Amino acid sequence: MIAYKETMVRFSVVIVHRDGAELLLRALAHLQAALDPARDEVWLVDNGSRDDSVAQVRAAYPQVRIIENGCNNGFGRACNQAIEQARGEFVLLLNNDAHVQPDALDRFEQDFHALPQAGIVAGQLYGPDGAAQRSHGMLPTVRAELGLGRQPLPKLAQDRASEVETVVGACMAVRRAAIDQAGLLDPAFFFYFEETEWCVRLRRHGWQVWLDPRIRVTHLKGASTRTVRRGAQVEMLRSRLIFYRRVFTPPMAVLLSAWRIARLLVNFLLNAALLLLMAGLNRRLRNKVAVYGTQVLWLALGCPRSWGLPDKCPESDKRSR
């Protein structure tokens, strides 16, 4: 069981951040309207920002509890750092590019009280243009991962919460009791797939995963990785391969990993050949080949941990546990 302080608050909101003070301050400004200062707390885990993000937060929001890593500790590990110290009956993991509405925490609380088996409740994500984003998904299956057909997402009611299989973790509330039973986020996932694996693990412990479309969240999708696309795609591949090992049987994990790598090689070779035929003039195709090529080289070099997103904390650093 996770050791945390006996004095409980309602929500512990956890935001992981690295660079982009303006983006973070906008998220905090929206969050303030949803907080009950007497019952909620906010934790910021800074993964080695090179700008003055932390100083600006301290000046504008002195009540925010801050953990400074000085290096990039990944998303799941950074979340775990705050969760281990937080006092909330519920934990809200909120992206630094996600904006909640004033009623968000009240609605999350109502859902948890109405749904005693709910381990996770997520909100419905919308882009800045108001278009709905994918906010939930089906559990990955061997058939789907092999490209042999995916189950269509069920249409959810818009006036109430619905049980789903997995959720997108940009704005995801988790019950403390569920964390105590199923465990923290898996630290093996540096970025991507950590919330999907958590949904699988919580469900295996008897907890349910829900999405409430009445909790509207504006999500500036991809803002945190837009400038490091090649590294982000390496992290995506690394996390997918780890996910296979965590969720499927060893023979299935080997099969799916081999299929994923073979498909990557084919995509790289086909796109590289097409780029050659076009004399390298298509910029979009050049970028695609560069992304594929970086992943292929990462695999060829034995999947070095240092590749991917920049400035990672040392493996021996206590913060990575």
Descriptive report:
By secondary structure, this protein is an alpha/beta fold. It has two domains: 9-219, Spore Coat Polysaccharide Biosynthesis Protein SpsA, Chain A (Alpha-Beta Complex), CATH 3.90.550.10; 226-320, no CATH class. 40% of the residues lie in helices and 20% in strands. The protein contains ten helices and eleven strands. The strands form two sheets. Strands 1, 2, 3, 4, 5, 6, 8, 10 and 11 form a nine-stranded mixed sheet that branches. Strands 7-9 form a two-stranded antiparallel ribbon. Strand 2 (40-46), helix 2 and strand 3 (65-68) form a beta-alpha-beta unit. The chain starts with 8 loop residues before the first strand and ends in a 21-residue tail after the last helix.
Ordered list of secondary-structure elements with their pairings:
Elements: E1 9-17, H1 21-32, E2 40-46, H2 53-60, E3 65-68, H3 75-85, E4 88-94, E5 98-100, H4 104-114, E6 118-126, E7 136-137, H5 142-145, E8 162-164, E9 166-167, E10 171-175, H6 176-182, H7 194-204, E11 208-219, H8 229-247, H9 250-277, H10 283-300
Helix pairs in contact: 1-2, 8-9, 8-10, 9-10
